[in-house]
Hints:
Distance between the termini of chain A: 33 Å
Number of domains of chain B: 1
Low-confidence stretches of chain A: none
Structural class of chain A: mainly alpha
Oligomer: heterodimer
Shape of chain A: globular
Helix content of chain A: 40-55%
Strand content of chain B: under 5%
Strand order of the largest sheet of chain A: 1-2
Number of helices of chain B: 4
Largest sheet of chain B: none
Largest interface: A-B, 67 and 56 residues
Order of helices and strands of chain B: HHHH
Mean pLDDT of chain A: 96
Amino acid sequence: MLQEAALAASPKRQQAIERSWANLVAPGALLTSAERHQVIRDARAGWAGATAPNVTSGIMGEAAHWLAVDAEGLTEQIVADFEARGLDRLRYLEIVGVVARLSNVDFYVRGIGATELVLAEPSPTAPSGRLHPDAVLTNMWVPTVGRSFAPHVVDALPDEGEAVRDLHEPMYMLMADMGDNAYRDLLTRAQIEYLAARTSYLNECFY
Amino acid sequence: MVASGEPPAVPFGAELASLTQAMGTNWIDPPTSERDALVAAAGPEFAERAIGVAATFQMMNRLLDGVGAPVNKGLHPLAKELGFEPLDIPR
């Protein structure tokens, strides 16, 4: 994986991509492996230029498409409409986690000039059903746990939350370093935050 | 770029801006020329690190917009200074 890239992946980011991809294509808390594969195909179709969701994928395909291409355009009303048509908030949350992590994986892979990772056959193993017992609906559209901040917003599905941080830390910085404005590695903190701010500006994400 | 149209003041700011722009707006082709320019200016390890940061904020943006995370109240004054009303963002 990634061996043919134009730019060599650092070992820790290569390993993070490998772990995340293995997790993405496996069964989740509520979605089967086959359902997660379809979410991946629908998100990728959006990035490839599809202007509308794949109608054969139903509501899950709609959610995957819009999360991929226009996440900033989603509203409480749209998510409530998904729910009214059968996509409950926790299954929607799992799709959020899958599409978001896929974007990290695919944009990184494309960024270093490697070939897009290929879906194999889905696993027949059933979803785990693992939910956080303290997750409740408060000031977001989905159940959250406690005073949720960015790397914890999918923690109602504990395995998704852990998978987010398992990718976020090697790509950005360790959670323990996030409060250190003097942090630096190959990049200075200012360079890191410039990349973050510019990306968020282009995505119209105002969080 | 910054409001004046000048590259950001951080070292390799112009190259970082171009790379981020390419990664964020072209979802099909690799950012080959922008990546090569950053490699030439700052080296391959620096460029790979920068690509990781830009990619992970694609994830974070979709997570936060997808769950309807509100704008942090502590940042409301800054948001207004930037020219938008944070409570008007559709949530």
